[in-house]
Design goal:
Layout lengths: L11 E4 L4 H14 L6 H14 L3 E3 L2 E2 L2 E3 L7 E11 L9 E9 L4 H16 L1 H7 L5 H18 L2 H6 L12 H17 L5 H11 L4 H13 L4 E5 L2 E2 L8 H9 L12 E3 L2
Parallel strand pairs: 1-5, 3-6, 4-6, 7-9
Antiparallel strand pairs: 2-3, 5-6, 7-8
Helix pairs in contact: 1-2, 7-8
Length: 272
């Protein structure tokens, strides 16, 4: 997947603002100047509202303000470089110097998470971060990011590539469903091992009735595709596909507000 699918050279800019809200406004203003959006006030309000719900400073000097909205039909991003780092209340308490602002429809959520996974890997790598910190011009920075985007895409499997851009929306599904799905998977494994008893089948059917239909349907589809639909998060990575999970999503998994899926392989994520 090419970097152009997310943003082009014109959408890497040097920022003058020195406060978080003003940085976001400057980025949104630039999108309208580039004629990528046509109602900067509305999108600024949406991004700020999202920011009020959860801070998007994900660490290593990098922040990802964003908004999901059905008022756009395409994926929109802009990357800003601050002249001086600013306080952003990031999860690692370090100031932010790089800001990637994105606006996209809900159906492109998986594509967005792919982008964030790619960028998080770049900024968590000391050598790559050092290249970026060398204050290259926007054109040079774009060349660096373009090369890293290609490397990232080549590092994931063909199955993972096929899932990029496809959304599996389990928002609103209670986190308790994950526990029920794990129990269901255990029963299915007994069935696969040859236990076809009436008692086991009754347990399976009874348990399925307790699970939200969206998560059950997704689980059954994943069960056909993979030996195990579940993966443990270890060292900020999915043990199923070994791809890095952005820190901001690690925090969401910890909070157990819902079911979390690996953005690369689609497995249900479990944080022990």
């Amino acid at each position: 997947m090419e970097l152009e699918e997310f943003f082009d050279k014109k959408q890497i800019i040097k920022l003058k603002s020195t406060e978080k809200q003003l940085v976001i406004k400057e980025l949104v203003d630039k999108l309208q100047e580039l004629q990528v959006i046509n109602n900067k006030e509305r999108y600024y309000a949406q991004v700020i509202h999202r920011e009020s719900l959860e801070n998007t400073g994900i660490g290593n000097g990098f922040a990802i303000p964003h908004a999901r909205t059905e008022s756009v039909s395409e994926f929109i991003s802009i990357f800003g470089v601050l002249a001086q780092p600013i306080d952003y209340q990031s999860i690692d308490d370090k100031p932010v110097q790089y800001v990637l602002l994105s606006i996209f429809p809900t159906e492109m959520s998986t594509k967005y998470l792919y982008l964030i996974g790619m960028m998080a890997r770049i900024f968590s790598n000391k050598e790559k971060k050092k290249m970026i910190d060398g204050e290259p011009s926007p054109a040079k920075l774009y060349t660096i990011l373009k090369k890293e985007a290609k490397s990232y895409y080549e590092s994931i499997s063909e199955k993972e590539k096929s899932s990029v851009g496809k959304v599996e929306n389990l928002s609103g599904v209670p986190s308790s469903d994950l526990d029920l799905l794990i129990r269901l998977d255990s029963l299915y494994r007994q069935y696969d091992e040859g236990n076809n008893s009436v008692s086991l089948n009754k347990k399976i059917e009874s348990l399925k009735k307790l699970i939200d239909n969206r998560s059950l349907t997704y689980y059954e589809r994943m069960r056909k595709k993979r030996n195990s639909p579940f993966s443990i998060v270890e060292k900020n990575s999915c043990t199923g596909c070994h791809m890095e999970i952005p820190p901001i999503y690690i925090e969401q998994i910890k909070e157990r507000k819902g079911i979390s899926l690996c953005t690369h392989c689609g497995r249900f994520l479990i944080l022990l």
